[in-house]
Amino acid sequence: MRKTVGGSFSFLKKYLFITLVPAIIFSLVFTFSGCKTQEKVIKIGNQAILSGDDEFFGEDQLITLDMAVSELSPVKIGGFDYEIDIITKDDEGNAEKAFLLAQEFVEENVSSVIGPIFNGTVKASIPVYAEYSIPMVTPSAQGVDISRGFNNFYRMIINNSQKIENIADFLVAEMNPEKLILIDNGEEYSVKLVDHMVEIFESRNISFHKRYSIKFDTGEYDVLAENLFIDEPDVVFFCAEYNEVAALLERTGKLELKCQYVTEEMGMDDAISEITDNIYLEGLVAVIPDPPSLAKYSENQKAIDFWRKYNDYTEKMDGQDLENKGPGPYAPYTYDAIHILINAMKKANSVLPEDFSDELKATSYDGIAGLIEFNSNGDRVDPQSTVFIMKNGDWVR
Questions:
Q1: If you count Cβ atoms within 10 Å of the first and of the last residue's Cβ in the chain, which end, N or C, has fewer?
Q2: What is the pLDDT of residue 24?
Q3: What is the pLDDT of residue 323?
Q4: Is the predicted pLDDT of residue 229 greater than 60, yes or no?
Q5: How far is CA 10 from CA 3, 6, 286, 336, in A?
Q6: Which pLDDT does position 13 carry in this prediction?
Q7: Which among 251, 249, 245 has a CA at the least distance from the CA of 269?
Q8: Residue at 182 is within a domain
Q9: Whole-number Å distance between alpha carbons of 346 and 359
Q10: pLDDT above 90: residue 28
């Protein structure tokens, strides 16, 4: 009898243990979960260069993203609050390292990547991100062919081809030259720029009078000035450093050649008026790739507010050895980049790339860098340039 009772009691204890323990565990888990829900996080990769001679650009990108996150996070998406987590990695400006880092970002389940900074690192990274449909937004790389064949690429800045197209459009539409002469300074950048401009003219059946290629040499500049005097152009486009532009303008000015000179960003420098008499510089035009909101002497309120916030933010970063003395040229594009990514997620009610990529492609965002929209290649639609003219020794917008 006791055996039976004892046996039954033993069975009951086992039964109660088997049934009650899971219930207790469930209750504890439920109670714990009710007290503290798991934090929801948006992981955004920051692929930059944070070492070597070009670390300024990576540091600038990192500061800008940290500042933007301090303003945006937490963000409500699909009814939930998400913290934004910027995961930063240094690709050293090296294509092989960039390829490996891209794989690491994928393994860490980032929703998107801002960067890389250079053309070569973009080209090495993008196939990895494309395989997993992870959007990559570069604030700085301007090479035209770096993204061909991929639909996960977005560029915040004007590309090299668009930059030259804007100069060509200005020369034709605004200058309306009867006899246009194109000059490069023999350096690779200048030669390629003028080569592309010639291609643009030929594709549009636009004629120009002549092209010269000149090395920076006193004797050759004297000869070129005499040739221009004989050619009698009404417009001359010269892609060269500001000191080279000044040297040619002074020589042709002394010959009393009356024509309009146009240059681009290399030729625009305040120091040009320090090395040449202003009488020879008067009327010199420079077409630069910065949009009006970001170009020199900008009074755009969004840009002014950004520069102020950036400087205030860096001043609060005590104990950190920063080279940055204000935002670099790509900081505004980085700031706009994270905003368009978060906006796309909000509109899609999702932080998953497969859900918000369509919204990213359809972006229409009025940012610091102007109206940001993307074409089918991920490039900016109609990015603007800014025109300056030299008056009384000063550049005027």
A1: N
A2: 40
A3: 63
A4: yes
A5: 10, 6, 95, 70
A6: 38
A7: 245
A8: yes
A9: 9
A10: no
